[in-house]
């Protein structure tokens, strides 16, 4: 039985997300700013793509067999994607996460049937870091594979093979710039490589939050972090395997306050409820758009990633008490 306009598998719901013109950011930049709606994936984030490609890669290499287990260390969204893909493919999932991430992510992972292991947040050099803990668990668990999203280049391959071609097709082959933040580096490196394969003149920019080291690396050749950010899932202090060879042409650094202003405006003015990583990405897209316009490209088109839904941060970004404890502005409609 065929249904030409239907989707044959839940796995096929991952990707092919809409691209939307962002009116407020476009006006601020003086050119078109487009957002890739990755919150439309089944797991409500861009990380569904990496999860699917990582699982498929492990299957293709014969490492992941029926009844097996996928284990990963994550700030949450990759874990959610892995749990959903694992369920659809008949695997178990174990997710190791820092205990300072949003309650919504933890509750979601438990609801999806994943085994959730919480560890204290710590530096990557610490053997108890969530990434190292997940690797040890995978080594100790029979029939398990370690997803290793930071250094498994199946992650960036997902964006080379899906995100970049989708953007290119959606914009009819006319795009001038792309930017987003880096967590694992898979999204910016993969999408950047994929887009430059279509047109090497596309400007790829890193948008880095404070507290991460990549802005200084690409600007000055030194991995040096300054300040801090409450954004979850973005910010990196090393060059991961996914970031190696990333075609970064320029870089911006955006504060939480700048990101939150776009979170506020996109919800109040355009009806998009997003997380802080999306707000930081949009702030970077506006900066890139302004740069291209200043260089004479007044009809420039810039694309960024709307990473996940704001519904995942109701206890944090959309909680006035939490915002106040972090010294961040409270959205006017939340003021009591």
TrEMBL record:
Q: Which UniProt keywords apply?
A: Pyridoxal phosphate, Transferase
- Which EC number(s) does the record attach to this protein? 2.5.1.47
Q: Which GO terms describe its molecular function?
A: cysteine synthase activity
State the superkingdom. Bacteria
What cofactor does this one take? pyridoxal 5'-phosphate
Could you tell me which residue ranges the Tryptophan synthase beta chain-like PALP domain spans?
A: 13-308
Q: Is Transferase found in the keyword set?
A: yes
What CDD domains does the database record attribute to this sequence? CBS_like
Q: Which PROSITE patterns match?
A: CYS_SYNTHASE
Q: Which InterPro entries has this protein been placed in? A: Cys_Synth/Cystath_Beta-Synth, P-phosphate_BS, TrpB-like_PALP, TrpB-like_PALP_sf
Query: Protein name, please?
Result: Cysteine synthase A
Query: Lineage from the top down?
Result: Bacteria, Pseudomonadati, Pseudomonadota, Alphaproteobacteria, Sphingomonadales
């Amino acid at each position: 039985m065929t249904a030409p306009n239907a989707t044959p598998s839940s796995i096929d719901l991952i990707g092919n997300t809409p691209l939307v013109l962002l009116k407020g950011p476009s006006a601020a930049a003086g050119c078109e700013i487009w957002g890739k709606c990755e919150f439309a994936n089944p797991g409500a984030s861009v990380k569904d793509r990496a999860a699917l490609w990582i699982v498929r890669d492990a299957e293709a290499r014969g490492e992941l067999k029926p009844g097996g287990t996928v284990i990963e260390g994550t700030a949450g969204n990759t874990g959610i994607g892995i749990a959903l893909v694992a369920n659809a493919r008949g695997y178990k999932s174990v997710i190791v996460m820092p205990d300072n991430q949003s309650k919504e992510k933890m509750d979601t992972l438990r609801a999806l049937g994943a085994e959730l292991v919480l560890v204290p947040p710590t530096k990557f050099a610490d053997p108890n870091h969530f990434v190292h803990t997940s690797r040890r668990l995978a080594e100790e668990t029979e029939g398990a594979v370690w997803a290793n999203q930071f250094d498994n280049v199946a992650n960036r391959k997902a964006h080379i093979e899906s995100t970049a071609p989708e953007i290119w097709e959606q914009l009819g082959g006319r795009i001038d710039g792309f930017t987003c933040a880096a967590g694992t580096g898979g999204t910016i490196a993969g999408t950047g490589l994929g887009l430059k394969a279509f047109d090497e003149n596309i400007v790829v920019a890193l948008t880095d939050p404070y507290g991460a080291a990549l802005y200084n690396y690409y600007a000055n050749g030194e991995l040096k972090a300054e300040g801090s950010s409450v954004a979850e899932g973005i910010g990196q202090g090393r060059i991961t395997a996914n970031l190696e060879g990333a075609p970064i042409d320029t870089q911006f650094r955006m504060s939480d306050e700048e990101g939150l202003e776009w979170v506020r405006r996109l919800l109040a003015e355009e009806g998009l409820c997003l997380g802080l990583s999306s707000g930081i990405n949009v702030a970077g897209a506006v900066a890139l758009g302004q740069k291209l316009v200043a260089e004479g490209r007044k009809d420039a088109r810039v694309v960024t990633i709307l990473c996940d839904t704001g519904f995942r941060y109701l206890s944090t970004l959309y909680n006035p008490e939490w915002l106040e404890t972090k010294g961040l502005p409270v959205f006017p409609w939340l003021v009591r």
